[in-house]
Amino acid sequence: MRGIQQYRYRDPFCYVFTPECRMKMFRLHAFGEDWSLGSVLFSDIGNTFSSPSKIVPEAYFTYGGGLRFGWGNDFVISLDLGFLKTTLNGVYVYFGQQF
Question: Does a structural domain hold residue 87?
């Protein structure tokens, strides 16, 4: 979950809900290629638990936003800022979309 340190909560079972709202802001055709710049707003909701009989009803809620730099139809660089409560807990740079 973006906004919580990686490996902070570890158990063999989890549930995660990750809604996103993506929007392309600019498109450009240059040098024979298609380029795009987009934005995303997201929230991640979930928790971990040790066995199916110990499902925890409380969930962690994180949120944030980011940018998407696209090249062609398949190559995307994502830059996200993740928050837990009111604290910036992570800057995430990765290739591709979250899902």
Answer: yes
pTM: 0.78
pLDDT digits (tens, 9 = 90+) for 47-95: 888 888 888 778 889 999 999 999 987 899 999 999 988 888 889 998 9
Does 2 map to a domain? no
Q: How many domains does the chain have?
A: 1
How far apart (Å, rounded) are the C-alpha atoms in residues 48 and 58?
Answer: 10
**Measured between alpha carbons, how far is residue 93 from residues 56, 67, 68 in Å?**
30, 10, 10
User: Is beta strand 13-17 parallel, antiparallel or unpaired with respect to 87-95?
Assistant: unpaired
Residue 70's domain comprises 13-95
Our measurement of the distance from residue 3's CA atom to the centroid of its chain's CA atoms, rounded to an integer in Å, reads 9
